[in-house]
Fold this protein.
Amino acid sequence: MLNESKYHISPEEMLSEQQEIEAAKADPAKFEVLYNRYYEPILQFVYKRVEGKEAAFDITSQVFLNAMLKLAQFKFMGTPFSSWLYRIALNEINMMYRKDKVQRSIKVEEHELKNVIQEINPDEDIDAQYNRVAEVLSDFEEEDIQLVELRFFEKRAFKEIGDIMNMTENNAKVKLYRLLDKLKEQLTLSKKTA
Amino acid sequence: MKNNKIKIETGSEKLTKEEIDSHKDFNKVYKTYTTTKTNTVKSPKKFGGMTTMVVVTTTVVVTTIGAWKYWNYHKTATQPKVTASTSSSTKSNTASTTTAKSTVKHPYIHPPIKGVDVPYKTYSVDANKGGTITYNNSKIVIPASSFCDANGKAITGKVDIKYREFRNAAEFFASGIPMTYDSAGKQYTFESAGMLDVRGYQNGKPVYVRTGKEIQVSMVTTQRSISYNMYELDTNKQNWTYLDKSKSTPIATKTKNLKDTTTIPPAEQKQVQQIQSSIASIKQEEAAIEKTKPVEPKKVTAGRNNFNIDADQHDYPELAVYKNLLWEPDPADKNYKPSYAAITWDDASLKRSADGTTYTFTVKKGAEQHSFIVHPVFEGKDYDAAMKEYDKKYQDYQVAYDKRKADEKKQQEAYEALLTKIKKDQEEEQQNLLAHANLMGAVTNMFYINNFGIYNTDCPENLPHGAEVTPQYTDNNSDNLNYNEFYLVEKDKNAIYDYHPGHNCRFNPKVENFAWMITPDNKLAIYSIEDFSKIGITSGTVVFKMKVLEKPITSVEDLKAAFKPYLGDLDKQWGSARS
């Protein structure tokens, strides 16, 4: 089981943040507090998903500019502000890949990949499956791998995944477990053919 | 095989605290925000069943955007870019001599005549199967599984492809798509061999071309030169991006557009087949007649063996007419031995030679077998009767044979005449096509695109040389028309030179020039070729007294009709966008 998302914020924190957002809507200079809070998480989020640090810095700047330009449209509906920023970031990343037509890449920590293996085949030797999981994942569709990233690499809650990917929590769950079945099936297949 | 494999990297370099802090700069973001916000106007406009926000951006934003190199991936070439009228009216800017750029906010793509634009045609394509779209003479080939949504997820089901082309000055002008190209700080005007705009939607939402997929576009153009570059419009950078040289194929060399001399057209093919069939039939008849050619009777040779062979008359029709026929071995054939006459053979067969003059007789008994040449012979009165019959039959045979030969000759001559006619037609057709192609310089430009957007096959041109004058624009009543853009074309050149109010006007006095403006009430004000020819100076101030046409322009067709007396039929000159 995954632990509670480290990105989780309490209702009190959310409320306090909502006041900061409203203040930034009235005076964009007050967006700074939100920028300072989320700059590094967004940068890390972007950096994991693009190749090159400069690209990550540029996209992150764009994310915050877009957020400021669209802030008036943000309405507090129980969704953390951070999810809204991550969604903008994901859109920017997607747009960059669509434009540049370069091979999509994702940086993964060893333990993150092992999390996935632990989830699907806990009884099998993790090290033996390591390379095969990476290989099978690399063939996934973009949206699918984004789900895996958010859930297993970043340990986000389904609610937050749904918010970021613009889908319901339940849909995120269903899709992810279907993906795990697919991953398991592909791994079995690749094991047989290996 | 999936070709958009995702690269999974492990053990990548991490961002350091110093790197993060050095790039964390709210002031920079805030500054960009304030600049962008100040210069941005949003105007919603319905388009194709969806609402699209149009960002009206000034040049100030472009400069600022340049600070962040990655912003160029926001080019709207992948998005449906829809133009809208702005809140800043060009009408109110009367008689101003300041430049339009510093005072009027336009979207980058800005059709200059309200409500007039080159329409899209919409095609439904199965995203799974792909398909081929034919737009007049152009073909757009979409491979299977080419589309994804904004999140990169593959799209299935029907996708609406919206497509339009721009071929001539009227269409370039009406579209409002900028036809200038900035290269290394120098501005050029495009001479275009054709421009296209292609978009994809599903349920009103834009779709995108998947990584690794390419849409093939083949555009027929009548531009004389085949050395054109390919450009994609980047509305964010507000410039065209050079892609490649277009791969041009002169139509005259394309087999599919010429009659292949080895291929007979279907209508004539039928005639050819009929004649060929008739000739074949005659030849069969001739062969059958030849089989009945009677063999000239011979008398028996004294001292040689002869014998009777009971041959079936059906197998040897040429012998059927003879009675009391005998067979005699050929004296030159050493295979025959007189002793054979004494043997009772188990089996015997007779075979006529190919030329019909001799027969081979084969006899068998057990393992023993002999073959030798024999001739039919007659004795005494039988010979006389046989000769009589032979003369008669031979005459019949010859008549029938000659008739068939005459028929064959006739058919053969008809066949040759038909082939000659076909070949002549083909040569004439080929000459016509070549002449037409050479005259018009028609080529097919083929290229591949991996984004939806606007593409152009162009040749960047400098502004005209020869005359540079300070213009004063007036209408028929000498009322001031200095508030608007002045558009100039050279006849037979597919480029529009656009002069802002207050700027000098350059033109080449050695060619035929034609210019126009659009008045605030959508009327066309023209300065004709004849007007240009009367200018007489190459510098100083020139009053361009424009003739304002009575009816406002309400469509691209109106525009073409208004241009026609001066520039001719633009559709026929520059392609077949409106066939």
